[in-house]
């Protein structure tokens, strides 16, 4: 009996039984295409007769001896931080990022550092020729590193080559969208090919203990292209972020089975490649205008790392009937909420003003603890009052105007003090006496800035 054709969205992987002009899952137009069914896998498992009953396997309790996953340090401290302390044998990392952001540069540096420590490392490129990869290595001064290169896209050939001899400690596949497997009858880059190729490579990693890094393309909205199931199959999903106008690059982990999520590594793009930034707070605050109103220092947390960044705001009278609201590096919906709270509970009239908010350095902030710093910068710009230069702000603002406590206050204060900030201006610690710089309500913040004290009583 012939199988009915299958149609899959090439953006999100949603499957339909007939063609559709618009994908109902992701809303994309003309992204649904017909895909052929996969061939059955040929091998010992397919030759065995099917069993009517499953086999019984032993069950274990929650108590028992546990060991931390072994780690292999690559020699790149920022990369190891995001990975959770190093590469875990048999783990698979999916790395996404915009074109030209520096993914290949980062991975060739990581591969060279690990190869120079005596491990076998293979770099498989499906987009560039071997000569192009060599030219990049020469520009970075890494041509002498014993990295094994190849330009290949057939997954079966790649698995056979990596399995010959001692399995490599690290294998880089650049990129997964260019790979194809003979078990799927569709073009490279389709949902079925990406899923089938990733499954074959993950199976090899688990069987041979090889750490594999899969490079993934991204869509227009910054999401990794291809089926979402690939992100569930891998052990770690990381994104390489940055702006062409800034020389900073952020490696951020959104999923990690062997380490903390939302951990970041900071790099600086130089003429010799990506340089690690061990103290990103000092770098993000470099060149700050201390006497200018509308700037506030935010003491944030990215994963386990405390980070200080400058939030800049500009509030100006608007000649338009609908004032502009522009934000870079922060959630626009969060800005709208802070503006509404300032107007409703702080007495700050911003309805006839254009509002611009920017996170300096190209970093994107995701935690709500930046509410207080953004509010302080907005009020400072509106009143023309500079904030105190020795104060760092953090705190979440509720819809009632209350400043709510945030996590890891101690780490934020310690990082601020290390960089010379004498006072941490935020919510009072729960169950403790409020320090002089503590704020309980957004109206207190407005009153202090309007009186010229910024964060002082």
Automatic annotation (TrEMBL):
Signal peptide (UniProt feature, chain positions): none
Top-rank lineage group of the source organism: Bacteria
The protein's role, per its UniProt record: Plays a role in repairing double-strand DNA breaks, probably involving stabilizing or processing branched DNA or blocked replication forks. DNA-dependent ATPase involved in processing of recombination intermediates, plays a role in repairing DNA breaks. Stimulates the branch migration of RecA-mediated strand transfer reactions, allowing the 3' invading strand to extend heteroduplex DNA faster. Binds ssDNA in the presence of ADP but not other nucleotides, has ATPase activity that is stimulated by ssDNA and various branched DNA structures, but inhibited by SSB. Does not have RecA's homology-searching function.
Lon-protease-like: annotated segments: 354-457
Keywords: ATP-binding, DNA damage, DNA repair, DNA-binding, Hydrolase, Metal-binding, Nucleotide-binding, Stress response, Zinc, Zinc-finger
A biological-process GO annotation: recombinational repair
Entry GO MF terms: ATP binding; ATP-dependent DNA damage sensor activity; ATP-dependent peptidase activity; damaged DNA binding; serine-type endopeptidase activity; zinc ion binding
Residue span(s) of domain RecA family profile: 68-218
Family indicated by similarity: Belongs to the RecA family. RadA subfamily.
Free-text note on domains in this protein's UniProt record: The middle region has homology to RecA with ATPase motifs including the RadA KNRFG motif, while the C-terminus is homologous to Lon protease.
Gene symbol of the encoding locus: radA
Name the record gives this protein: DNA repair protein RadA
Motif (RadA KNRFG motif): 255-259
Keyword hit for Nucleotide-binding: yes
Cellular component GO terms held in the UniProt record: cytosol
């Amino acid at each position: 009996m012939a199988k009915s054709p299958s149609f899959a969205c090439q953006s999100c992987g949603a499957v339909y039984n007939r063609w559709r002009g618009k994908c109902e899952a992701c809303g994309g137009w003309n992204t649904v295409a017909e895909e052929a069914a996969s061939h059955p896998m040929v091998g010992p498992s397919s030759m065995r007769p099917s069993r009517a009953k499953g086999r019984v396997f032993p069950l274990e309790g929650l108590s028992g001896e546990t060991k931390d996953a072994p780690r292999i340090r690559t020699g790149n401290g920022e990369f190891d931080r995001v990975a959770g302390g190093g590469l875990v044998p048999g783990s698979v990392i999916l790395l996404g990022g915009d074109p030209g952001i520096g993914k290949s540069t980062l991975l060739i540096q990581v591969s060279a550092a690990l190869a120079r420590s005596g491990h076998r490392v293979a770099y498989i490129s499906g987009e560039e020729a071997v000569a192009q990869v060599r030219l990049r290595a020469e520009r970075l001064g890494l041509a002498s590193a014993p990295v094994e290169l190849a330009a290949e896209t057939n997954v079966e050939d790649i698995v056979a080559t990596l399995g010959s001899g001692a399995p490599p400690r690290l294998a880089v596949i650049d990129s997964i969208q260019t790979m194809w497997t003979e078990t799927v009858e569709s073009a490279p880059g389709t949902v079925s090919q990406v899923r089938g190729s990733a499954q074959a490579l993950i199976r090899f990693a688990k069987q041979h203990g090889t750490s594999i890094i899969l490079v993934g393309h991204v869509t227009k909205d910054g999401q990794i292209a291809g089926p979402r199931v690939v992100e569930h199959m891998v052990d770690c999903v990381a994104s390489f972020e940055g702006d062409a106008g800034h020389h900073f690059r952020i490696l951020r982990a959104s999923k990690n089975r062997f380490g903390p999520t939302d951990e970041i590594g900071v790099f600086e793009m130089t003429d010799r490649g990506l340089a690690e930034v061990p103290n990103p707070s000092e770098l993000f605050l470099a060149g700050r205008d201390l006497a200018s109103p509308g700037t506030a220092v935010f003491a944030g947390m990215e994963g386990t790392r405390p980070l200080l960044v400058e939030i800049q705001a500009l509030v100006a009278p608007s000649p338009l009937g609908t004032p502009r609201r522009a934000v870079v590096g922060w959630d626009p919906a969060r800005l709208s909420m802070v503006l509404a709270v300032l107007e409703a509970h702080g007495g700050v009239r911003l309805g006839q003003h254009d509002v611009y908010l920017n996170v300096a350095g190209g970093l994107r902030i995701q935690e709500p603890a930046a509410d207080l710093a953004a509010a302080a910068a907005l009020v400072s710009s509106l009143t023309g009052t500079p904030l105190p230069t020795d104060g760092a702000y953090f705190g979440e603002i509720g819809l009632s105007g209350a400043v709510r406590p945030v996590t890891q206050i101690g780490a934020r204060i310690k990082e601020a003090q290390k960089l010379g900030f004498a006072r941490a201006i935020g919510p009072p610690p729960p169950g403790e006496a409020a320090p002089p710089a503590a704020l309980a309500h957004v109206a207190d913040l407005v009153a202090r800035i309007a009186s010229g004290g910024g964060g002082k009583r």
